Structures are given as C-alpha cells and as structure tokens.
Amino acid sequence: MDTANQDINLNSPNKGLGTNDLSDVPVEGAVGNAERTLPPGMTEEEAEELRTELTKVEEEIVTLRQVLSAKEKHSTELKRKLGLSPLVELKQNLTKGWQDVQTSNAYKKTQETLSQAGQKTSAAFSTMGTAISRKLGDMRNSTTFKSFEDKVGNMKTKVVGPRANGEELQSPEETNPVQDNAPF
Question: Does residue 109 form part of some domain?
Fold first, then answer.
C-alpha cells in the first residue's frame, strides 16, 4: 500500500487506509448520502451545483492531504540527512521559545519589578541588621546587662573555680594518673 495515498484524517473511517480501498463504504455526511430533500427556496439545479462543488472541494482536500503527507516525508528525510533529530528540534524550539519569552514586554516588566523588590528587600534587611546591631550594643552597655554579666561571671568562678594566668584545668585523668597494670 502506498503511504502517500493514505487518508491521514484521524477522524476519518478510512484512517490509515488507501483512499481507494473503501470507496464503496458510505461515509456519514458524504455527498452521496445527503438527503434529497431540498431546503426551502432552493431548486434542484442549485442543489446539484452545490453538490458538484462540494465533491470538487472534497477531492481537493484529499489531494492536499496527499501533497501534505508527501511534503512531510520529504521534510523528515531532509532533516535526517542534516542530522536534525526530534530531540535537537525540541531543544531548538525550547531555546527559541525561551528567547521569545525573555524579549516579551511582560517578562521585562516582571524582571524589572522583581529586581526592584529585591533591591528594596536587601536595603530593608541591611537597615534592620544595622538597627539590631546598634540595639544589642546599647543593651550590652546598659547597667542591667553589666549587672547580669557580673552575676554570670561570679557564678562561673564559683562553679569552675579561679584560674590563675589562664592556666588550663587538668582533666581528672591527669590529676589521678592510672597505673597500667592491665594483663593484656
């Protein structure tokens, strides 16, 4: 079966078959099946003219489908010879699509708005950090903090004990050396 003569209309009852294979099978809505009752005000001659024109248009559609199918096959063959796989085409389409998005006015406006928002947020955090640092500095210099610091220092001295000249405390092992009398 010649694939160039295949009916590629996915809604067609002849889908995937040669156009001549089912020529005698009635198709819903086809010219031959049209009811012979005429719309009011239409003569038999006008109806016959319209049927003839419809037949010609349907034949043109079939011819155009065949031409389109042949062109698609030729395009596929040329792409194959050029090394353009469907994956490469997809990549190119995505790249072009992304470039189109980036050049769109909506993208530019959104990018500009987000950039401004980021700058304002950064400035706000910087200001907030400066204010917190200043408040912590003020708090450390306050009499309440100094009193608290003194009490914690005193408690540390009571718990740890005084150290003279930065001497390290000895670990319990160093103060009581263990004799190595192990049998192994």
Answer: yes
Residue with tokens 């040329």: 78
- Distance, CA of 8 to CA of 60 (rounded, Å): 14
What does the pLDDT look like over 125-146, one tens digit per residue?
Answer: 999 999 998 888 888 888 887 7
Q: What does the CA dihedral 175, 179, 182, 184 come to, rounded to 10 degrees?
A: 90
* Residue 47 contacts residue 38 (beta carbons within 8 Å): yes
Report whether pLDDT(76) > 80: yes
Full residue range of the structural domain in which residue 67 is found: 3-86
Say if residue 31 is in the same domain as residue 70. yes
Same-domain status, 59 and 11: yes
Distance CA 18, CA 42 (A): 36
Measure the CA–CA gap between 57 and 51, rounded to whole angstroms: 10
Residues 48 and 110 placed together within one structural domain of the fold = no
Give the count of domains, the chain. 2
Would you say the C-alpha torsion 35, 36, 37, 43 has a positive or negative sign?
positive
Q: Read off the tokens for 125.
A: 């955090």
Tell me whether residue 179 is in a domain. no
73 and 137 both lie in a single domain: no
Tokens encoding 10 = 């996915």
Q: Which residues pair with 7 in a beta bridge?
A: 15
Check: pTM over 0.85? Answer yes or no. Answer: no
Which one-letter DSSP state was computed for residue 8? -
